Amino acid sequence: xxxxxxxxxSHVVRPEPVRDVYLMMILAMLEEDSTNKSALSVTLQxxxxxxxxxxxxxxxxxxEFRAWLATIGGSSDVLATVIDAVNRELQDQDEDELMQFxxxxxxxxxxxxxxxxxxxxxxxxxxxxxxxxIAEVQGWSLGRPQ
Length: 146
Prior knowledge:
With 146 residues, the chain is α+β, with helices and mostly antiparallel strands. 35% of the residues lie in helices and 34% in strands. It has five helices and seven strands.
């Protein structure tokens, strides 16, 4: 089928991304913490990769992202204004639209394992803050691999 033919079809249905209700409830509980101090260790499967870290609220992620930007110097002041601009834009959106992303701190991407007689240690790059679409999570568990 040519692109012209495909573009003419208005009956194409694009399914809504599926978000795990249990994961959404855990995230909602973190979001309700007005102190932005709550965190929960999780391991996620995203795009076939394993990522482990502390699940945090959007507010805590923003606070830590702003603090991190302040440490890098250079144009960090300009970048920090991006957070304020995004917050102004988000004020008009409903809560369901806002609950589209997960935020991790101390995220570690598990690319392979180093084994020994004492156990298996996950290895891979680490990121102080990481954000991903909830709909991209294919599987998850509480805790981190040891």
